[in-house]
Every structure is written in C-alpha cells, then in structure tokens.
Amino acid sequence: MVDRVRRAAIEHMSTNKRRFKLTTAQYIALYKDAKCVVCGAVVSWVDGKEARLVIDHDHEKTGPESIRGILCHSCNLAIGWAEDNPAILEALAAYLRRYAAEGGPFRRNT
C-alpha cells in the first residue's frame, strides 16, 4: 500500500514538473503547506475519496508562469464550469447573496 501511494506521488510530481516546466525545488515549494487558495481546504475529495490538491493554471499560457495557484477539486471544477470567466462567478455569487437576503420565488411573506 505504501509503495503504491509513494509511486503515485512520484508520478504526480514527475507529470506536473514536465507539464509546467518546474524544477523539483519549484514543485516542492508549490506544494509545501499547500491549501486551496479559494476555500482553504487542505485535502480534496473526489467521489468520497481523498484526492490531492491540483495545480490551477491559465490554459492560454505555458510553463511556470501559467500557474495561478493550488485548488481543491471542487473549486477547480467551479472555475472550469464557469469557463475561467470571472463575470460568471461574480454573477453566481450575487445570485447566492440575493437568495440569502430575499429568499427564493416561493418564500413566505411574513
């Protein structure tokens, strides 16, 4: 079990070093004390299983300068579903705030 986990960690590091053109020192610095820059999670969950945090990056750039930060799976999906568009994410946040303040279409009048 430990060997499999260790092998997966090494593969993850190798893949991301190659993909983002990182040195080992840069990779280690990126993940040292890593937590999601959006929600603060230190662990990510996928289908009820613990998963590593992911490197979020700008798809229009390459190399280390494309890296925006470390995200959990949920925050990474949210950004992806919003197509990296801040206006969509801001509109979603406004929608949630409006619901919290006013209630939904079937709210009770008191």
Structure summary:
The protein is built from 4 helices and 4 strands. With 110 residues, it is an alpha+beta fold.
What features would you describe in this structure?
With 110 residues, the protein is of the alpha+beta class. It has a domain at 2-73. The chain has four helices and four strands, in the order H-H-E-E-E-E-H-H. It has a two-stranded antiparallel sheet with strand order 1-2. The protein has a two-stranded antiparallel ribbon with strand order 3-4. Strand 1 and strand 2 (49-51) form a beta hairpin. The longest helix is centred in the N-terminal third of the chain and has 19 residues, at 2-20. The radius of gyration is 18 Å and the shape is elongated. The mean pLDDT is 87.
Features:
alpha+beta; two-stranded antiparallel ribbon; elongated; two-stranded antiparallel sheet; single chain; 4 strands; 110 residues; 14% strand
Low-confidence stretches: none
How many strand units?
4
Helical content stands at 40-55%
Mean pLDDT: 87
Rg value? 18 Å
How much of the sequence lies in strands comes to 5-15%
From the spread of the alpha carbons, the general shape counts as elongated
SSE order, as H and E?
HHEEEEHH
Count of separate DSSP helical elements: 4
- What is the rounded distance between the termini? 58 Å
How does the major sheet shape up? 2 strands, antiparallel
What is the structural class? alpha+beta
What is the fold's blueprint, element by element?
Elements (H helix, E strand, L loop, with lengths): L1 H19 L3 H8 L12 E3 L2 E3 L2 E4 L9 E5 L1 H9 L4 H17 L8
Antiparallel strand pairs: 1-2, 3-4
